[in-house]
Design goal:
The complex is a heterodimer.
Chain A lengths: L1 H8 L1 H33 L13 H28 L2 H33 L7 H22 L3 H15 L2 H11 L19 H33 L4 H6 L1
Helix pairs in contact in A: 2-8, 3-4, 3-6, 3-8, 4-5, 4-6, 4-8, 5-6, 5-7
Chain B lengths: L2 H5 L4 H39 L1
The chains are: A mainly alpha, B mainly alpha.
Chain lengths: 242, 51
């Protein structure tokens, strides 16, 4: 088990493993996203109250879920990087931040575009919306901090600290709709037990969720590869690649 | 596609706007690291030749 773990963490081994997996992850992401989006836009019936505006959930829910999951992953990578000084974890940390920030931006904008016709306003400073905006600033903070340092390892340590401190915001986003009286509805789909929407609506949403997460995996793996290439540019295994 | 589909029961700007923003960011997420990799490999190759 530990030898397997060590092998996985070795840059050339991880690079090659990612290279082998990436085409499959990319194809699966594109296929599931096409299924989810076409299913959501064309085949799902309009909602009886929201009509066609409800279709925004096919981009909003997956990106919002990814924004939280990726932040958690980034904080875990940060903890591993700080405790075990693991290079691969540092690379995962800095690779996740831009992708997570992108997902957060989409979640925020699509939420606003849904809020305008449904709530009558693009934005309110309530708990869910505000904490999701804080999440975006945390991602941007990690990106900015990483670029402020000359030395990649010192940068990663600083980013790891910020990522870990910021993780307290994740449960705040997740449970804000239950803890406070938010304008945002509580979870109807991502909860245990039977979902409260019809299968025609739910199945494309699950496809869009899986596709969005796979797209994030694709983007992060590619970014980890880039980070490894740059850090190890003077080593033998990179020279062999060229 | 019929007109109703594009019309989205009056919410066209919101629905297509949302999917448009998502499509832009998703394409960026998928393509930006690939372009960066080409740049990286070129620059590593360049500096290897200098040595």
């Amino acid at each position: 088990m530990w030898t397997w773990f060590h092998r996985l963490a070795s840059p050339p081994h991880f690079y090659r493993l990612a290279e082998r997996w990436l085409p499959w992850v990319g194809v699966a992401a594109a296929g599931l996203l096409a299924w989810g989006w076409i299913g959501g836009l064309v085949f799902a019936p309009p909602d009886y109250q929201q009509k066609d505006a409800f279709r925004i959930i096919y981009v909003h829910v997956p990106t919002a879920a990814a924004s939280l999951s990726l932040y958690t992953m980034m904080a875990v990578a940060g903890a591993v990087a700080l405790i075990w000084r693991m290079k691969l974890a540092e690379c995962v940390l800095v690779a996740t931040a831009p992708v997570g920030a992108g997902m957060t931006v989409v979640a925020l904008i699509t939420g606003m575009l849904w809020g305008k016709p449904m709530w009558g306003t693009y934005w309110v400073w309530d708990a869910r919306l505000t904490s999701e905006l804080v999440l975006l600033f945390l991602y941007l903070g990690v990106i900015g901090l990483q670029q402020a340092f000359e030395d990649a390892r010192a940068a990663a340590r600083a980013c790891a600290l910020l990522a870990i401190v910021g993780v307290v915001n994740v449960p705040i986003v997740k449970y804000s709709v239950e803890w406070w009286n938010s304008l945002h509805q509580t979870s109807t789909i991502l909860k245990l037990g039977k979902p409260t929407i019809t299968a025609d609506m739910a199945v494309p949403l699950y496809a869009a969720l899986a596709g969005t997460f796979l797209l994030c995996a694709y983007a992060i793996l590619r970014r980890v590869q880039n980070e490894l290439l740059w850090r190890e540019r003077r080593t033998g295994w990179v020279a062999e690649l060229l | 596609m019929d007109a109703n589909f594009w019309h989205m029961s009056g919410y066209a700007a919101y629905v297509w706007g949302s999917f448009g923003v998502a499509a832009l960011v998703f394409v960026w997420a998928g393509l930006a690291p690939r372009r960066r990799r080409r740049e990286l490999l070129d620059s590593i190759r360049g500096s290897a030749e200098d040595v």
